[in-house]
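To close the section, here is one more complete example, presented without commentary so you can practise reading it yourself. The ligand is flavin-adenine dinucleotide.
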Amino acid sequence: SIRSVAVIGSGLAGLTASILLGQLGHSVTVFEKSRGPGGRMASKRVGSGSADVGAQYFTARNPEFLSFLQRWAGSDAFREWPARFRFQDDTLNWQPFPEEKRYVGVPRMTAITRALSAHVDVTARVRIERLERSGNQWQLVCTEGLNHGVFDQVIITAPPAQARELLLASQLDGLAEELENPVDQILPCWAVAAHFSEPPDVNADAMRPHSEVLYWVANNSSKPGRNDSGQWWVLHATPEWTKAHVDAEPGHVSKALVGEFAALTGADARPDETVAHRWLYARSAWSSQPGYRYDAENGVGLAGDWLAGGRVEGAWESATRLVAAIR
Ligand code: FAD
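Output:
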């Protein structure tokens, strides 16, 4: 039977669930608190282009993930990023990443979620605060106190801390209790995009350093289809450094990360422009959850990367499995 479903969140998990449920004939509405879709597959406008400040790349170990993207986002929306990936081992030597295909959105990471969102009905700038019982259905209420319709089923794709708040406010204590495990927490991350008109002399495109400050460094301009003049680099701080500087000024953060980048690479790195973005919820600390949660009695499901490995592909996997369980 056809059901009305509300999906909370328009990151990859929410968009995947919406498309698949729509395909099954259900009537789906997506609610997103931000201005646009994408969630943590995010790009920020910088200079004349954009830089990916959230997810850096993704894998498609499950071939069905690629088929899904080709069908619903289109093969122009993403491409392989054949970069020189290096990590620094315990003895501080640089090693290549294992051989694997790594993909990015083209010309920016958000191209994928933008294309996917064309197939679904997204109501942006609405932050759902709670679900209220309305007979057998759920009424959605936003933080402005407005009602946003009644639905047979609700799928929540917010990160665990936010999902838990939503569940508690909706008297769904059973599901909320399952989110109390501290390993489910998502760690914060300061991200900085820095522009160099003189490309720094670095012998890799993407690096995971052995550093207390930097978790990840990548030449965003080396991704396919960027066409930047000069180079935009993206620097991600470690969760520990981010926690210790969570309320720091963006200018201070940029300076610290660029300084560490210069120390790490020996490059005479002097950016002419920097942009900082703070993620309070970036990546899962650890996760080996079963993929999704579904409370069939209440008609409420949870999906998201944090339920399936904390990565882009996991977000898709989690949503796909939840939809298979609901049908
Ligand atoms: P999200 O993308 O977080 O989507 C959740 C959505 O719900 C958001 O849009 C949010 O605004 C919305 N929302 C939340 N609460 C509400 C509410 N109450 N009402 C309405 N809307 C709400 N993954 C990789 O695979 N490779 C990487 O290299 C990589 N690097 C990363 C680097 C950083 C800095 C970050 C932040 C993440 C990185 N990730 C990476 C992780 C990857 O981005 C995520 O795994 C994936 O994008 C999560 O998708 P999602 O749909 O589960 O969650």
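Once you have examined the tokens, check your reading against these statements. The chain is about 25% helix and 30% strand. The chain has two domains: 4-39+115-182+287-326, 80-103+184-284.
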